[in-house]
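Hi L.,

As promised, C1q domain-containing protein:
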Amino acid sequence: MSGSDSQRCYAFIFHNGNQLSVSYSEEKNHGYAEVASNTILLTLNVGDRVWIETATGKYCYGYPYTAFSGWKI
């Protein structure tokens, strides 16, 4: 498992300091990793903050394969 932080990855979504969700995946079979995703709809106000944190380090499995998107409707 070259370049990895851990065999497990936890990604948390936060809104203004409150944890809203967690996604979990685990590396399997010599580099094959499960895929996990979440979708959350929020009504945001000016000054609100939304972010992702991982429990394993800067990246899951040591590689920057995480995406975060938002839309203004």
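Residues 32 and 51 are 26 Å apart (CA to CA).

Thanks again for sending the construct details.

K.
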